[in-house]
Amino acid sequence: MAPDLIKVEIIERQTVKPSSPTPHSSRTIQLSVLDQMVLSHVYFPTLLFYSGNNNITGSGGGATSTDMAAMRMERDYCQHLIRSLAKTLTHFYPLAGRLSKGYDMIQCTDDGAEFVTARVKCSLSQIFEHPDFEMLTGLVPAVGQPDGDGDGVSTRLPLLAVQANLFECGGIAIGLNFSHKVVDGITASAFISCWAKTALDDGDDDQVPFMVPKFDAASYFPPLDFLNSSQPSSAELVGIIKQDKCITKRFVFDASKIATLQSNLASALAPHAPTRVLVVSALIWKCAMEASSKSSNIPPSSFLLTMDLRRWFEPPLPKNLAGNVVGILVVTATASLKGQEESNETIDLKDLVAKLSKGIAQQKETYPTKLPFDSNQALQRAREYEKLRGNVDMYHLCSGIWCRFPFYEADFGWGKPTWVSVPSIGRKDVFYLIDKRDGKGIEALLSLSEEIMEHFESNPELLKYASVNPRVM
């Protein structure tokens, strides 16, 4: 669906505050060193689509048979979401706060999250036909522009913004924009689960709907004094993240195709079978490396992924520990020569799977995963990665793995999501993996330059296992 075929009309903007005030003892939260190493202006979006009355075949049916019925439906949808959001923010109270001027703390003063109500002049079936990811950006609330405060990021910007998109067919899409300075993917997923459970059990004020999060990551990952020391600023550390000229496309790997791919690559990790995430990641990396080649030579490459430190610590950290509780892992690879001619340079997928698996295991062994946590060592690893990214003769690819997140269980009272996705990523050489609705297949959202994407999406090896942006249903 072309971007000019969708019209998003903003009806109302409001602020939603926690239904109960945050206790004074919790009004200030120190950010951990892992939070500090995230730029203040980085937000990550999520979209959950719901088909109203199970009717997504066209507009004008079901609850929208009259204008009055449509207005009542819109009011009920939004009031339901706002009421349950306010209750949820009492548990996730930092998301209703604001960053301190030094960006090292969250001031939990109940300033609130932003809530936007919008009407969309089309049906879900039109979007689902062949999703356009530039178009989907209009379904996620835009967070205010930097205003020159400090490093160019306003301390008054909300840390969470939500947009309720009401479609002509009676469907709804909930778009969320989270501050990455405050939460990682697991924390964001926990928030969505808590909000949905609160909405589903609306009216039961005494019930705690979800495992209450712990916002004390700084006690596990001690912060560093970036302001009053010779340490680099967070911007210098992780590099300036800018909007790149790129294109985002969706590649769908059905469960049967993944099983075939796993079977074909099983000998690479014998006696252990490679996971579905590993084989899909390796295939994407291989095809992206090949597509990035400007000659017969395939450039060396780095692959960045993150690991959930909650699980990898010894002993494991609390599952409900909130914030950025992730460590970065970086694996590098080079092509090999088949014969003496450079034109025969190639990448063997089995070799790449084995290398990726071995590299991840080695990285996990050396990453600090015991208490007391060595914040300086984590900082040094991040600096080494930024130095590696400065090598313009290498191709660098970053991944975000959202598989096994319970997005498709998020029932706000009108059923489970029909589709979960993200809009255009806006940064090139980045991809996300998200479960299909069946929990077995995988959807990959990949952002590349137009030139590299043209070569990537026509790769015969990729097309053996993936479909390029098929219909959602």
Outline of the structure:
The chain has 473 residues and is an alpha+beta fold. It is built from 13 helices and 18 strands. It has a seven-stranded mixed sheet with strand order 11-10-14-16-17-9-18, sandwiched between helices.
How much of the sequence is in beta strands?
Answer: 15-25%
Largest sheet: spatial strand order = 11-10-14-16-17-9-18
Number of strands: 18
Q: What is the helix fraction of residues, given as a range?
A: 25-40%
Instruction: Determine Rg (CA atoms, Å).
Output: 23 Å
Task: State the helix count.
Answer: 13
The CATH topology of the largest domain is given as Chloramphenicol Acetyltransferase
CATH architectural category of the largest domain: 2-Layer Sandwich
Relevant CATH superfamily of the largest domain = Chloramphenicol acetyltransferase-like domain
Describe the sheet with the most strands: 7 strands, mixed
In oligomeric terms, what are we looking at?
A: single chain
How far is the N terminus from the C terminus?
15 Å
Number of domains: 2
Globally, the shape reads globular
Structural class: alpha+beta
Q: What is the CATH class name of the largest domain?
A: Alpha Beta
Mean pLDDT: 87
Contiguous uncertain segments of 5+ residues: 54-65, 146-152, 230-241
